[in-house]
Design goal:
Rossmann fold; globular; 7 strands; alpha/beta; 7 helices; 18% strand
């Protein structure tokens, strides 16, 4: 695709929950006709917790990855568990290598800005040049710019606008023949 900005979209909403619901709506809409790879967030469902990190669900396989440690009610510290995010990232890298049309990664957050968490999945998506849809907090936008090194568009958490972006990206994205080395690189050289 000549304009790389059209292949990367960052969604911003009123809240994280708003963006997550928009992503779930789009996955439900697209899954019957689009080869998707990626992760959507799910709540841990625990009351009286300071941190919202819960689970990541693999869009392609429905596998669920825990990304939280239960520190008990009333805990005031973030309970994010990076090991679960790393496992989820590995699964997405395999899904990208197996072939997909669109990668949806729920969020580029603090772990990814530090090169951890889902960073490997984001790198695989960027290297593949497959359209990428994600969310990034305005507080991490500079880190996102450094990480991607490429232009991107910012979209509201509106399924209609995001779907319009996807239809444009889908019709203008090149069909890329992935070679064995590319697949091997995505799978860590295995």
């Amino acid at each position: 695709m000549d304009d790389p900005a059209k292949t990367i979209a960052v969604v911003r909403g009123q809240s994280t929950a708003d963006v997550e619901q928009t992503f779930r709506t789009l996955v439900d809409r697209w899954q019957p006709t689009v080869r998707l790879a990626g992760l959507i967030a799910e709540s841990h469902g625990l009351a009286d917790r300071a941190c919202n990190a819960g689970f990541l669900r693999n869009i392609a396989t429905a596998e669920r990855f825990s990304i939280f440690q239960d520190l008990g009610p009333g805990s005031t510290v973030c309970h994010l568990d990076g090991a679960g995010a790393l496992s989820a990232a590995g699964a997405v890298r395999r899904d990208i290598a197996a072939g997909c049309e669109l990668v949806l990664l729920n969020k580029f957050g603090k772990l990814e800005a530090a090169g951890e968490g889902l960073a490997g999945a984001f790198k695989a998506a960027l290297e593949s040049r497959i359209p990428l849809l994600t969310s990034v907090s305005p507080a991490l936008e500079d880190a996102w710019k450094r990480f991607t090194g490429r232009p991107f568009v910012i979209l509201p958490a509106d399924p209609i606008e995001i779907d319009a972006w996807w239809q444009a990206a889908r019709t203008t994205a090149p069909v890329r023949a992935l070679d064995d080395k590319f697949f091997s690189d995505l799978n860590g050289g295995n």
